[in-house]
Amino acid sequence: MTTTAAIEVPAGAGDDARWAAIVARDGAADGRFYYSVRTTGVYCRPSCGARLPRRENVAFHSTRVEAERAGFRPCKRCRPDRAPPAEQRAAIVAAACRRIERDERIPRLRELARDAGLSPHHFHRTFKAATGLTPRAYAASHRARRFRERLPRSASVTDAIYDAGFGSGARLYERSNEVLGMTPSAYRAGGANVAIRFAVGECSLGAILVAASARGVCAILLGDDPGALVRDLQDRFPRAELTGGDAEFEQWVAKVVGLVEAPKLGLDLPLDVRGTAFQQRVWRALTKIPPGTTLSYAELARRVGSPRAGRAVAQACAANTIAVAIPCHRVVRSDGALSGYRWGAARKRALLERERSQ
Fold it and tell me: What is the pLDDT of residue 31?
């Protein structure tokens, strides 16, 4: 199967650019203009899948109203008189997300599909393509987020469990490490009684903070101000038992610094990685990008099975708090531009240049 690159059709573009978009059936041009076919009497979107008309029979219109005033009727295949397909899909998914967030119980797939006017299979595929998650995973992620928000403010852990929409606390406690990184009681107490070792050092990219729980490295932070890195860690767990690393932990820090200086060496330390199901899928995919190479956000979205979730992939990269070991710096824009990086574009460029040179 071959794919055609999108044709940039700015407002006021010439007829040659518009015709090129029609030939490419470029969905990105939908809404920017319409075209009519003299021999059939219909007007279409640029992405219409109907047989390509002859160029001499085609006229261009800025709006569908203009096309209809010229005496053309809407094509029954691409339905240019309705919202573009991408907007329709976005509206369907947005409505489903609002229902999931609003309902006390997780709606069944067939209920969500019925509301959307789609088959369960088609709805499931549309929802996952837009959000990067299945409807059930989205519901679980939303409940976990709501639970984290309500836990510190609730009178008890039990109240927070039921306020967040969980019917039972048993399953939540089973998954508490994944959802919270600790037990609900410890999280509610701001991380009290949770031991986190940390140390701040220097590397060629500036200050570096390495923190680890009993499960493994939970943060690798980069910056210019060592104090700011420590405050960032304290803000995450205001009542955790933060202790400076001992001689053994300093060896961990040395290994992390070694990874920064020579990424191809890899890191043989355990990682304590927690996030939503979609974030973890993205982070796992990041670790499979070889040093010295890059991937676009769009390609990464395809690799995690959600080709339309480029924005969600970018957000997952931005949420990564384990620099270099989970190499979000290897993801760039489709045009090769570096785009954003949690620890600064200059560090992203330096890491990529270092990997390529090695």
Answer: 84
